[in-house]
Amino acid sequence: MSQDAYDHLRTDPEMGPVVEEHGPVELEPAEDLFERLVRSIVSQQVSTSAATAIRERLYDAVEIEPAAVLAADEATLRNAGLSGQKVGYVRNVAEAFEEHGYTREYFDGMSDEEVVAELTDIKGVGVWTAKMQLF
């Protein structure tokens, strides 16, 4: 958490006591950007328990890397619990990673707005999902 955000939240009537009690939040970025985006897509519009079950089945069915996701047949991905639309979205992300070579290093030096713009060019990745990937 940036110092400005921390200072601002400390003065908020609702959040101030919570921030004072717990201190600043330290977040570690997800290690693998592709996996993080896949997890975000899997979790969209389903309960936490459903997302966990789907993610576990997906991870058992296919290695979570772009080439493996692209090589998997649709039935495998659907049997893991992905809807037809989410299969398309996950494959869109895999194609973009293959085409552009996306890594954390690829995005180094870009502003948050540039990262969001790049990621939202992928069909299935909206602004909220892209912002969750910022590091």
| CATH fold field value of the largest domain | Endonuclease III, domain 1
What share of the residues does DSSP label as strand, in percent?
under 5%
Mean pLDDT across every amino acid position: 91
Number of strands: 0
Order of helices and strands: HHHHHHHHHH
Tertiary shape: globular
Assembly status: single chain
Helix percentage: 55-70%
Secondary-structure arrangement, i.e. CATH architecture of the largest domain:
Orthogonal Bundle
Secondary structure tally, helices = 10
Report low-confidence residues grouped into runs of 5 or more.
Answer: none
Main sheet properties: none
What's the CATH first level of the largest domain? Mainly Alpha
SS-based structural class? mainly alpha
Distance, first to last CA: 11 Å
- Classified in CATH, the superfamily of the largest domain is Hypothetical protein, domain 2
Overall number of structural domains: 2
CA radius of gyration is 17 Å
Précis, in short:
With 135 residues, the protein is mostly helical. It has ten helices and no strands.
Q: What does this 3D model show about the protein?
A:
With 135 residues, the chain is mainly alpha-helical. Helix content is 66%, strand content 0%. The protein is built from 10 helices and no strands. The protein has helices at 3-11, 16-22, 33-43, 48-61, 66-71, 74-79, 84-100, 104-107, 112-120, 127-132. The longest helix has 17 residues, at 84-100. The relative contact order is 0.12.
